[in-house]
Amino acid sequence: MYIVTVVLLIVTIAALIGIDQAVKYWAVESLQPKGSIDFIHFGDFEIFDLTYLENDGAIFGSMSGQRWFLIGFTSLVIIAVTVFLFMQRKRSKVLNTALLLFIAGGIGNLIDRIRFGYVVDMFEFKPFEFAIFNVADIYVTFAVIILIVYVMFIDPAIEKKTKAAAAEKAEHNE
Q1: Contact 136, 104 (CB under 8 A)
Q2: Is residue 16 part of a domain?
Q3: Residues 162, 169, 5, 152: what is their CA dihedral angle, to the nearest 10 degrees?
Q4: What is the distance between the alpha carbons of residues 15 and 4, in angstroms, rounded to a whole number?
Q5: Are residues 140 and 106 in contact, defined by beta-carbon separation less than 8 angstroms?
């Protein structure tokens, strides 16, 4: 069963990375020459545009030009999260989902940093000034949201059940 779980995790991560890289490939090949195209608009109200951007920094362009630091830091975080995923894989499917998304997003952007020296971004949220982002960033964002929900609501419920089960077992052993 362990081998099946590992294979399923690897296939899922690879599929998510494949989606991210396919969208980035499209952005480089089709969007880069145009720069920006309208995407989701309602009359004069703009929601999203597809805008090609090469981001050599981290979130919101911070740490611009720190390629090797970002590659090293991202690699260490991916390794740590992967180890944690395998250590906690039986704890919760919600936790596993968040960690899978985090790993896939990290690897997706890491591939860009290694290949190009920057991350290819393309989604521009128009209603207010916001970072231009990509599919890997969406994975990481959803991973963080899921982790917050997990830590606030799901993990405490798991802990409560675990303690209740341990107390019941101890009571039967007496």
Answers
A1: yes
A2: yes
A3: 0
A4: 16
A5: yes
121 is catalytic: yes
Q: Say if CB 74 and CB 108 are below 8 A apart.
A: no
**Residue 137 falls in the annotated catalytic set:** yes
Annotated catalytic residue within 20, 38, 137, 155:
137
The answer as to whether 1 is a domain residue is no
Buried b (16+ CB within 10 A) or exposed e, 56-95: bebeeeeeeeebeebeeebeeebeebbeebeeebeebebb
pTM of the model as a whole: 0.90
Each residue of 5-29: pLDDT tens digit?
Answer: 889 999 999 999 999 999 999 999 9
Residue range(s) defining the domain that contains residue 78:
10-161
Report the C-alpha gap between 54 and 43 in whole angstroms.
29
- H/E element holding 18? helix 2-26
